Amino acid sequence: MLVSSLLLMSGLACAAGACTTTEEPMKPEEPTNVPDPKPAPDPNSNPDTQPSGSRALVVWFSCTNTTKGIANRIVEVTGAATWRIEPEVAYTSEDLNYNNSSSRANGEQNDPSARPAIKGKCENFADYDVVFLGYPIWWGKAPKVIFTFLESHDLTGKTIVPFCTSHSSGIGSSDTDLHRLATGAEWKQGRRFSGNESEETIENWIESMNLNFNNNTNAGVFDLSKGTNGNAPTVKLRSGYDMPILGLGTYSLHGDVCVNSVKAALAAGFRKIDTAHMYDNEEEVGQGVRESGVPREEIFVATKLYPNQYDNPEAAIEECLRKLDIGYIDLMLLHHPGTNDVKAYKAMEKYVAAGKIRSIGVSCYYIKEIDEFLPKVNIKPVLVQNEVHPYYQDTEVMKHLHDLGIVVEAWYPLGGRGHQKELLSDPVLSEIAAEHNKSVVQVILRWHLQRGVVAIPGSSNPDHIRENISVFDFSLTDDEMARIAALNRNEKHDWY
Fold it and tell me: Is 403 helix (H, G, I), strand (E, B) or coil?
């Protein structure tokens, strides 16, 4: 299979700019004709600005125009900009001669340190969030110019979607071999194309990944005007999924109380439920979801692995899936840092690829923890769940996470364990609540949302549950937000 793919490479006419055409290559195999694409931005040009406001970029290398054809179709579907990888020294047909063991490409592919020089860099690379990376299969692998590109650009925080072209070889490990060159990026599973795929095929492939092309991950700014009492608006996560910005926390809820609380929350309009292995109530949460009468696809369920599960994460994830019994998990978090947390997170990444988990994140990771963690994983966390409340506002950490495009969620949104009564009796909060004819709880929840922080208050009281999702018919003034900001004591109520 590798032989035929390289014979194909040597038998194809070279594309202008990437390979010379001065030598006639061997022609043991003719390429499949690539239909002319619809008019699209010229992939031979390296634009300085992105078209149509898209945050997607198609980066590609080709000596045969086959990869160019697929790149064109991706541009048609996404409105992405393009950047062509051009080697400083163009490849000749003899360079690509598979039968010559001393040919240039043969030597490069067999030399782990080979990094062929490329022309320039994509100067506006920081403007893009999603990078489609296209290449032909050479000797079963990505050409070494792809390695050069990855090592010469900062892909931290970006989503990389590899695609390759070959008329016989599969993608093999050509995509996963590249992961170590951009460890701070989120890598999607690669896809191999023969070169004659229709635009519909390309479109279906792209839609299946739930990519976010237009920078509409509103990590730190929520459009609260879209919310009504009983119907919280959503935030788009980096994974492409929408998550309600207000949910039900289930810590300390067990048995029938937990089941009924989940059902009451869903009946009141909540569509996000938060649980964890450590809460020992995943079975009850799953039962409440199944018995609620609300379609599964309308409900967003989050759970967490605890550090004592990190050593055998696959078994832990399977246990969560079994206990919840709701088909898939919308969001899974690491409960807090611990031994083997990277191992556990990488297991979660595999379940994302398998479609059993849709989004992943972490809890109790602050600036130092998240900065040390990100280079070690492939998928950037979509969300970090930390202790946040008016007495511990965590502003510096919150800004750091929002700048990374990560949503912040507050556990203890109404004050830490043993401190809630003090917070709910605070005279400043009581005065603001009276001015709006609202409860102190509603004022605190509204404060969280206006700061761009997701909140998951817990309750087993149906009246309180309805009250908690009735915070969209008033807003806090700038002065009121400033008065609440002044309550900050940097007073953390838990150890992690």
Answer: helix
Q: Using alpha carbons only, what angle is made at residue 279 by residues 276 and 270, rounded to the nearest 5 degrees?
A: 60
- Under the phi-then-psi rule, with left for phi > 0, alpha for psi from -120 to 50, and beta for the rest, what region is 405? left
- Sequence length of the chain is 496
Cα distances (Å, whole numbers) of residue 34 to 71, 135, 198, 363: 12, 16, 10, 48
Catalytic (active-site) positions: 279
Is 290 strand, coil or helix? helix
CB atoms within 10 A of CB 268: 20
Question: Are the CB atoms for 477 and 451 separated by under 8 Å?
Answer: no
**Quick one: tokens of 69?**
């054809």
The helix/strand/coil state of 383 is: strand
| Chain segment 314-366, per-residue pLDDT in tens | 999 999 999 999 999 999 999 999 999 999 999 999 998 888 999 999 999 99
The pTM score is 0.68
**Cβ partners under 8 Å of residue 173, min gap 6:** 141
Encode pLDDT of 432-455 as tens digits.
999 999 999 999 999 999 999 999
Q: How far apart are CA 324 and CA 266, in angstroms?
A: 16
The residue written with tokens 């700019």 in the block is 17
Establish how many alpha carbons lie within 13 A of residue 363's alpha carbon, considering only the half-sphere containing its beta carbon: 25
What angle is formed at CA 82 by the lines to CA 78 and CA 84, rounded to 5 degrees?
145
Q: Are strands 329-334 and 357-363 parallel, antiparallel or unpaired?
A: parallel
